[in-house]
Write a structure and sequence with these properties.
Distance between the termini: 34 Å
Mean pLDDT: 78
Strand content: 15-25%
Shape: elongated
Oligomer: single chain
Length: 462
């Protein structure tokens, strides 16, 4: 049975197409069930004899595989692009390898093209664009009878316009044909209510050569010294502490929902391997590691969906679109700090299941950008993300490049700690993180001291 919002969206899209419009944008919060809605929309169009084929594009092989399975079930066909099937599912990356005959086929048939996470396709006819955006603008936009664009975050970190989308003038705000917000999803019981825990420290000492500096917060450390955020992410005591909080939370949830799992988004392969060691050796956790260099990563993700392994550690492999409903706890430990990426990571733990416990907890450090993103999580499209730049500025400074969307584009594995100093998190020996969790101070060159946490529980009003 479809959810109310899914039925509404399908009805609006059908009316939109029947009224002579070809392009429809549905913005629905991550975890709301966009793929299932799209599959039933396609079925309705087939049943109404409005289309002959449906072709789906998405940002990764894992997501493409999930889409294929959903459409095969709803349409009752194999959905692999072979003879006698009703369509296929492929990645955006594969578009550049499609033969010209593919586009000719589209233009000769009544085709619905569906674009999952459409924000991956940047650019329009008047601006620079990536290769996927160019294919959309110059091929599909003119060949497909209908298009359906799906996204939970309709903006790009580089401020390029998104292909096929319409924008208001002069504000430059995206125009959605249907919206389903996180607030609506939480109220309807479609998505879990997010709880975001920001971890900070009151007393930090920085040893740089012979000089000892002290700071009262992570932000002060980053703003008043030459220390990079990567140093915090790679600090052993900091990692132990944030992972311990997440492990304790997952264990509490698994007391009620035994198959609940956790996700840790790491900054690099070396960083991920360090996190795996902490999980296994310090906290006796079961883990799976998936990276973009592992040719079996998709199989590992699929296995994790159905087993009872406690944690999956990823570098950019499960940031968006990947459907693992049993995930309920997440650590955002990536060096990528854009609102788009933050919301996509958070979305991995919001999909509801039929288990008794439906908590969703994200843990991260209290860095200025991450604080801002957490504070405005209740705003569906933040004002800071509503603007676009019609012509791409090639002269990004180093700071913009550091915050790029592409997971593999930031710090390389062997340079993660190049600019790190010795950080000493110092305070009393027995530090209370919350009422129930004590962090034991370890005696080492980098000692962990007093941490404090701030919990932001969205959509809780007194």
């Amino acid at each position: 049975m479809l959810r109310l919002w899914q039925n509404e969206c399908i009805s609006n899209a059908i009316d939109h197409y029947k009224n002579g419009h070809r392009h429809f944008l549905a913005q629905a919060t991550p975890g709301a069930g966009k793929t299932r809605m799209a599959a039933h929309l396609a079925k309705t169009l087939f049943d109404s004899d409005m289309i002959d084929l449906v072709i789906c594009f998405s940002p990764s092989k894992t997501v493409a595989s999930d889409i294929q399975k959903t459409f095969a079930t709803v349409l009752d066909c194999i959905f692999n692009g072979q003879v006698a099937t009703l369509g296929c599912s492929m990645t955006y990356q594969s578009m550049q390898y499609l033969h010209r005959d593919f586009w000719k086929t589209i233009s000769r048939r009544r085709v619905l093209c569906i674009f999952d996470e459409i924000h991956h396709c940047g650019g329009n006819e008047y601006s620079d664009s990536n290769s996927w955006g160019q294919s959309l603008v110059h091929e599909i936009q003119h060949a497909a009878l209908y298009t359906l664009a799906l996204t939970g975050t309709p903006w790009r970190s580089d401020e390029l316009p998104i292909s096929l989308l319409s924008y208001s003038d002069p504000e430059g705000k995206v125009i959605c044909n249907y919206q389903y917000s996180l607030k609506q999803a939480v109220n309807d019981g479609v998505c879990r209510r997010p709880n975001i825990t920001l971890i900070d420290s009151d007393k930090i000492s920085l040893q740089n050569n012979t000089e000892l500096e002290r700071f009262s917060s992570i932000n002060a450390l980053l703003e008043k010294s030459h220390t990079h955020y990567a140093c915090v992410l790679n600090n052993d005591d900091a990692l132990n502490s944030i992972i311990e909080l997440a492990v304790n939370k997952l264990e509490a949830i698994r007391q009620i929902s035994a198959k609940a799992g956790g996700l840790i988004v790491a900054a690099s392969i070396i960083h991920a391997q360090k996190i795996i060691l902490i999980l296994e050796q310090q906290f006796d956790q079961t883990c799976a590691l998936v990276t973009y260099k592992d040719k079996h990563s998709n199989k590992k993700i699929e296995a994790f969906k159905h087993n009872t392994t406690q944690w999956i550690v990823s570098i950019g492999m499960i940031s968006e679109g990947t459907d693992i409903p049993r995930l309920q706890v997440c650590c955002h430990l990536s060096n990528i700090r854009t609102e788009l990426y933050f919301r996509q990571v958070l979305g991995r733990i919001l999909r509801t299941t039929n288990t008794a416990n439906q908590e969703a907890w994200l843990y991260t450090f209290a860095e200025s950008n991450l604080i801002q993103f957490s504070e405005q999580i209740e705003i569906d499209i933040p004002e800071s993300c509503s603007k676009i730049t019609m012509f791409h500025n090639r002269d990004y400074d180093q700071r913009d490049q550091k915050h790029s969307q592409t997971p593999e584009s930031h710090l390389t594995d062997n340079k993660t700690e190049d600019h790190c100093h010795t950080i000493d998190w110092e305070s009393s020996e027995n530090t209370l993180i919350s009422k129930n969790i004590d962090i034991q101070t370890q005696h080492s060159a980098l000692t962990l001291g007093q941490y404090h946490t701030r919990v932001i529980s969205a959509f809780v009003y007194e």
